[in-house]
Design brief:
The chain is an all-alpha fold. It is built from 13 helices and 2 strands, in the order αααββαααααααααα.
Length: 295
């Protein structure tokens, strides 16, 4: 937004249009807004970095959790976190992609349009549901009705339910923004619907799909309320996805709120979580760059 406004003002200056006091005031307000956001980000990041760096070590990353997290490492926590996120994405990505493709490409009949309208309303409604409600649903449906109990599988499936609205909405918007001339060219070449979707639509939408995945992944990694009800609270190393396990966000919450003397390890765990988000963000950019090169 800031760049758009500044570019517009600069274009006016090039054309000889004098800047008014309102233009200068807008520049000042936008600059101060950017500075406030950057200041908050720098303060938060530096606080976690400076406080968490002291307890970060190889033993902390590879050791077992001891004394409710006051001592030892977070290896079981990392394994549980990666397992839950992996289950979440393996379920949410294909399901969200299929629904988004149907909404953008196949809901063209009269009945399909009616179903699509109500489905979009439902998706928007689910996007606004608090995470604690999703957690209660996951506890009742996955843990009790399906008999999964407190487990990594139940946590991953509950997280998938939470991020599906974001994935579907972003993917559908990306598919609908495909230029009409490309659609017309595909129709002129008699490309099948499946060929158009797999060879044209999805590759062209790769940047938006990558952004949607990263946003959803970031929300899943930082989620606490859903997993408090579904994945469990134990700190031991899980043997399978049917075992309970504690994820990083729940571990940070427990250390900072319930464990006396756990602040240092809470900061260190938060720093590891920030590193994970940074690494995943970087990987997505590398994959996105390779997709663009192929295109």
């Amino acid at each position: 937004m800031y760049r758009v406004v500044v570019s517009y003002m600069n274009s006016l200056a090039i054309k000889g249009v004098p800047r008014t006091s309102a233009d200068n005031m807008a520049r000042i307000i936008l600059s101060l807004s950017i500075l406030c956001v950057v200041a908050v980000f720098v303060w938060l990041t530096s606080d976690v970095l400076l406080s968490g760096w002291q307890g970060l070590s190889v033993n902390f990353l590879t050791g077992s959790t001891i004394d409710s997290g006051r001592a030892g490492g977070i290896a079981p926590i990392l394994v549980s976190t990666l397992a839950v996120v992996g289950i979440c994405l393996s379920v949410a990505l294909p399901l969200g992609l299929a629904v988004a493709v149907w909404l953008s490409e196949f809901s063209v009949t009269e009945r399909g349009l009616t179903v699509a309208v109500w489905l979009r309303r439902l998706i928007h409604l689910l996007a606004g549901v608090p995470s604690i409600v999703i957690g209660l649903f996951g506890y009742v449906f996955f843990c009790q009705i399906m008999g999964l109990g407190y487990s990594l599988l139940a946590g991953g499936l509950s997280l998938a339910c939470m991020i599906l609205p974001l994935l579907i909405s972003t993917m559908e918007d990306s598919f609908r923004s495909t230029p009409m001339n490309i659609r017309q060219a595909a129709a002129a070449l008699a490309i099948s619907e499946v060929g158009f979707i797999t060879k044209v639509l999805i590759p062209l939408s790769a940047p938006a799909l990558s952004a949607a995945t990263i946003l959803s992944l970031g929300r899943a990694l930082a989620e606490t309320a859903v997993l408090l009800f579904t994945s469990g609270y134990v700190t031991r190393m899980p043997d399978s996805i049917s075992d309970p396990g504690r994820v990083l966000s729940v571990h940070i919450f427990d250390l900072s709120m319930n464990v006396t003397g756990g602040d240092q390890n809470a900061y260190s765990s938060a720093l590891v979580l920030l590193f994970l988000l940074f690494i995943l963000n970087s990987l997505s950019k590398v994959i996105l760059a390779r997709v663009k090169i192929k295109l």
